[in-house]
């Protein structure tokens, strides 16, 4: 049986304050319908219950007294059902009030010093304790007994090392954690054993996620769980943060990582309408917010918009563009039905080496090589056979199983049997290091001895003085290769991606991409990102205009085109959805109309 959430849907989240319990349900539903949403994520229970709970350890919202029924959830579910709008329950079990914390200290987070974590009068709880492990299920049962909700989302289900003010509290040392953990608990990120504790915490959360899924499936199979990448619907929050370096491709990367791992599992991108948690009254810039949604739908995620309070609480400036893009997704639901990745190049996202990954990401994007992203930790679980090329950015030891396609590896990746003679890792060690042709090396360079039957290129030059000018000579060609080819494997034994990310020389980008291949033939400029997928409608190409990507913001994109682009062999018809034009196919080429924010080509 096909469940509702396996088809495209569009969500709107009202993250309610306790004073919003008297909201006008019909007015909110009017707004959602006009917005293009068909699913409402409503605050239901946990910290506050927006229904008349009878559970002793839950708190009824006192503002429910403003409603004649005394039941916001009940009113919302009934009214939404009449309109065919689904209601999902937002639950937050991360905190309890002082009275419950005093009665149940074993539920609470306990820092290494023995202190609890209290924020705005609420005490953080620990996922190892019984509030999560036992009481959570009693709350779900009470809600399911009363309301036919269409799904659940659990907010902030974590070990609360960091609070809302970004204060670091360390590793939890509560009784349950001490009993569950095999060994001595570390205190913080710098403690010995922290990596082991991270694995432990992920296992606890994965087990809890699985139990919640099973519980909901037994009680109400049509009500999915929205959570991590093992849930029924994978959740990604697209947000901004004051003080965080902007990675312009964060949403696209995150959705791709989820869809590549499990292509048929829905992803929900919940896009935050405000700038940051401390600035919840400040609207996100419309051009920034638009990128959340176009990157999400381009990679096959379901769009969602998230605001504080009700639609009338704060006039967020980004909501106009959000509604236009949400309605676009609604109006082209067939195009997004069963949309799965279709790139032939896979870019592995390493656990470490973030700069290397980002540099290779930008290189592929700018050279119009469509690619999918897969987390390194999922390599053993994903089907690699559908990819012509796998890119491994400085991942160290790796096992690709039976994969027989092309491999392009960088840095310390053990893709070839080479002997490492030395490693230059610091800036002082690599300074002034060049490869033949005047290619500079930045980051890490591994001096290797290649296999005797391998082809070597980009040999290193010995370093010589770089100042004063009178002494700048003496670079001698050495036998240390900067690129090795053997069979289907190409290895750059240095961080060529980091070099491009930090310095921006096209020579780094082009050396790498020329070995990957697979670029789309087009005269579109590098500011257009090409994302390919397949859906019920055919071969789908999203063209995302990235000309607005600028320092720490998104500016209005400059219109690009028209331009020519090749389409896959056998394509007879192409429709540009945003331009609303049928594009004639001539010898495998189409002329793409002018692109504003984005366009979508459906090829059949």
TrEMBL record:
Pfam families: GHL6. It comes from Kribbella pratensis. InterPro entries: Class_I_gatase-like, GH, GHL6. This is Glycosyl hydrolase-like family 6 (GHL6) protein.
């Amino acid at each position: 049986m096909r469940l509702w959430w396996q088809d495209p849907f569009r969500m709107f989240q009202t993250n309610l304050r306790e004073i919003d319990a008297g909201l006008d349900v019909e007015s909110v539903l009017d707004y959602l319908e006009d917005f293009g949403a068909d699913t409402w994520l409503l605050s239901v229970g946990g910290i506050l219950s927006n229904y008349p709970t009878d559970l002793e350890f839950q708190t009824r919202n006192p503002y429910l007294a403003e409603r004649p029924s005394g039941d916001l959830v009940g009113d919302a579910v009934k009214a939404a059902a009449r309109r065919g709008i689904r209601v999902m329950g937002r639950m937050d079990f991360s905190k309890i009030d002082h009275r419950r914390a005093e009665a149940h200290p074993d539920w609470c987070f306990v820092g290494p010093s023995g202190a609890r974590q209290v924020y705005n009068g609420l005490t953080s709880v620990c996922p190892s304790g019984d509030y999560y492990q036992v009481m959570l299920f009693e709350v779900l049962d009470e809600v399911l007994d009363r309301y036919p909700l269409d799904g659940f989302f659990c907010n902030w289900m974590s070990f609360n090392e960091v609070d809302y003010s970004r204060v670091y509290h360390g590793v939890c040392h509560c009784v349950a954690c001490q009993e569950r953990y095999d060994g001595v608990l570390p205190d913080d990120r710098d403690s010995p054993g922290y990596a082991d504790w991270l694995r432990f915490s992920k296992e606890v959360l994965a087990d809890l996620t699985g139990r919640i899924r099973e519980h909901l499936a037994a009680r109400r199979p049509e009500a999915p769980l929205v959570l991590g990448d093992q849930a029924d619907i994978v959740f990604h929050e697209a947000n901004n943060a004051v003080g965080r370096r902007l990675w312009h491709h964060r949403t696209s990367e995150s959705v791709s990582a989820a869809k590549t791992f499990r292509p048929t599992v829905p992803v929900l991108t919940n896009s935050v309408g405000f700038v940051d948690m401390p600035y919840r009254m400040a609207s996100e810039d419309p051009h920034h917010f638009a990128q959340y949604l176009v990157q999400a739908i381009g990679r096959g995620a379901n769009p969602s918009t998230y605001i504080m309070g009700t639609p009338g609480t704060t006039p967020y400036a980004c909501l106009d563009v959000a509604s236009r893009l949400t309605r676009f997704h609604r109006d082209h639901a067939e195009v997004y039905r069963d949309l799965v990745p279709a790139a032939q190049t896979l870019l592995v996202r390493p656990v470490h080496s973030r700069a290397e990954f980002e540099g290779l990401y930008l290189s592929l994007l700018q050279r119009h090589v469509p690619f999918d992203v897969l987390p390194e930790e999922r390599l053993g679980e994903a089907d690699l056979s559908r990819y012509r090329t796998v890119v491994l950015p400085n991942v160290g030891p790796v096992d690709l199983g039976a994969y027989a396609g092309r491999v392009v590896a960088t840095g310390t990746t053990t893709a070839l049997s080479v002997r490492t003679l030395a490693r230059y890792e610091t800036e002082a060690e690599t300074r002034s290091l060049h490869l033949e042709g005047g290619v500079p090396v930045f980051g890490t360079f591994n001096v290797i001895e290649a296999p005797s039957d391998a082809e070597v290129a980009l040999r290193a030059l010995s370093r010589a003085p770089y100042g004063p000018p009178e002494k700048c000579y003496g670079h001698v060609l050495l036998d240390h290769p900067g690129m090795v080819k053997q069979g289907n494997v190409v290895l750059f034994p240095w961080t060529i991606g980091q070099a491009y990310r930090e310095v921006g020389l096209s020579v780094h980008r082009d050396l790498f991409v020329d070995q990957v291949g697979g670029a789309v033939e087009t005269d579109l400029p590098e500011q257009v990102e090409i994302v390919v997928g397949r859906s019920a409608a055919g071969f789908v190409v999203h063209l995302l205009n990235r000309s607005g990507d600028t320092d720490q913001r998104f500016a209005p994109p400059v219109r690009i085109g028209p331009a020519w682009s090749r389409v896959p062999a056998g394509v007879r018809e192409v429709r540009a959805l945003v331009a609303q034009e049928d594009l004639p196919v001539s010898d495998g080429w189409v002329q793409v109309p002018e692109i504003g924010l984005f366009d979508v080509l459906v090829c059949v």
